[in-house]
Amino acid sequence: MHVEKIIHHIVGWLDSYVEKSGLTGFCVGVSGGIDSAVTSTLCARTNRPTMVLNMPIFQASDQLSRASAHNAWLQSFYKNVTPVDLDLTPAFSSIQTIFPSDIQDGLTMANTRARLRMLTLYAFASHHRLLVTGTGNKVEDFGVGFFTKYGDGGVDISPIADLFKSEVYALARGLGISEDIITAPPTDGLWEDNRTDEGQIGASYEE
Questions:
Q1: What domains lie within the chain, and their CATH numbers?
Q2: What is the mean pLDDT of residues 185-204?
Q3: Alpha carbon distance 138, 30 (integer Å)
Q4: Of 6, 26, 41, 182, which sees the most CB atoms within 10 A?
Q5: For the chain, first and last CA: distance in Å?
Q6: Angle 184-138-40 (CA atoms, 0-180°, nearest 5)?
C-alpha cells in the first residue's frame, strides 16, 4: 500500500472538489477517534479553511481529551484550521425533557445525539460556506451500513469512503496521528456504556 500516494490523491480530490463547489473549505466533526482524525488531517492538508468541531454530549473524558488534543495538534501544524469546542449536552438534555419518556429507548436517543451533531455541523458550515465532510469508511458506513441516517450519514462528501479500516490505520500513521488515537478502541460515542464499534457490529475489522 502506497500511503503517501493515497494521501496525495485524497488531498488533491478534496481541493478540486471544494474549488468546483464554489465554497471555501471543510467542516469536520472530531470525536477523538481514528476516522475523524484522519479525515480532518486530510482536509487540513489542502490549506483550505478547515473548521474542526468537538461536540461532546455526556462524553467520556478520554474521548473528549483525545478530540481536544487532536484539534490543538492540527492547529499547531496547519494555520488554516479553526478548532471549535461546543458542548451540546444542554441541548440534548432539553430534548430529553421534551420527548415523551416512552420513546426514549437507547437506540432512539443514540441516533438523536448523532442528528444533533449533524444539525450543528451544517449550521457552522452554512455560515462559513464550508462542506460538511463525513468520516465514514468503507467497512462501517459503506459496507455494513453502520451509521445514523441524517446523523453522521448526513454529509456533503466522504473522503475516506473507499478505505478499509486497515487502510485508515495506515494513513493515520502516515499522517502522524497521535498514538493515543490509533490505539483507542473505535466507538461511535453515542452510548453511555461506551460500547465499541466492533462489539455493535458483531465482528472484528479483520473479519
A1: 3-183 (3.40.50.620)
A2: 66
A3: 18
A4: 26
A5: 20
A6: 55
